[in-house]
Specification:
12 helices, 2 domains, disordered N terminus, Endonuclease Iii, domain 2, Endonuclease III, domain 1, binds iron/sulfur cluster, 243 residues, mainly alpha
Length: 243
């Protein structure tokens, strides 16, 4: 896990004024409200391998379709050994017939990642972000998803919802890349809350802080949100710039 140093982050790029301490305090209150508003009795902590395959399938896919395909895949192939032995073409065909986008690439990733885990990691998914990111199809977001939801580690996967909401809430500057958003969140939020951030923001992003037409009027975070106060706007959020 990367150790984040606050010196690597600064307040430059934010569209409103707030000290780092004020931001940190506000971030703590935001996560408390989010945890109350989007509670989850039990976080999905369980099988790192299945979480990893789920993440590969899910890229640019709707949740319902992903879940159906993922369930079907494990009904048919059962375990990592069977998947690793499956010809890439067969896996591609399986995905294509079920309407999975990028089926060619994903079919190859699923089989190859399984072979690598078996051959190079003794069949155990590595629990290290850098090792995870060496696997085909696993970028930083997926690696963090595996750590958080597969291993139950404190990690903050930054997907499209977390990226957008963090910026609307002024917890990261509007135009930074998702990796940088992760760093800001890690620095602003207590470590024992990291694991809640993704699932709470994903739920919040699907129901209230939607990509288009966020329902600020009924949002429990409106008092804490610079977007609701007009201090961050959609024009600020357009496009990610490398910083
Ligand atoms: S107040 Fe609006 S922009 Fe802010 S978190 Fe809520 S829905 Fe999103």
């Amino acid at each position: 896990m990367t150790v984040v140093k606050s010196e690597s982050l600064n307040l430059e790029g934010f569209t409103f004024e707030e000290s780092w301490q004020e931001k940190k305090k506000r971030a703590g209150r935001i996560v408390e409200v989010l945890m109350k508003t989007h509670p989850r009795e039990k976080l999905l902590i369980g099988d790192p391998y299945r979480t990893l395959i789920h993440c590969i399938i899910s890229q640019r896919m709707r949740d319902e379709v992903t879940y159906r395909v993922w369930e079907g895949l494990f009904e048919k192939y059962r375990d990592i050994e069977t998947i690793a032995k499956t010809p890439v073409e067969e896996m591609r065909d399986f995905l294509r017939k079920r309407g999975v986008g990028l089926w060619k690439t994903k079919g190859e990733w699923i089989v190859k990642a399984s072979r690598i885990i078996l051959e190079e990691y003794n069949g155990k998914v590595p629990d290290d972000i850098n090792e995870l990111m060496k696997l085909p199809g696993i970028g930083r977001k997926c690696a963090n998803i595996v750590l958080a939801y597969g291993f139950g580690r404190q990690a903050i996967p930054v997907d499209t919802h977390v990226n957008r909401i963090s910026k609307r809430l002024g917890l990261a500057p509007p135009r930074v890349q998702p990796e940088k958003v992760e760093e800001y969140l890690m620095e602003l939020l207590p470590r024992d809350k990291w694991i809640y951030v993704n699932h709470a923001m994903v739920d919040h992003g699907k129901t209230i802080c939607r990509p288009v037409g966020p329902k600020c009027g009924e949002c429990p975070l409106r008092e804490l949100c610079p977007y609701a106060k007009g201090l961050v706007n959609e024009a600020d959020l357009k496009g990610n710039r490398r910083r």
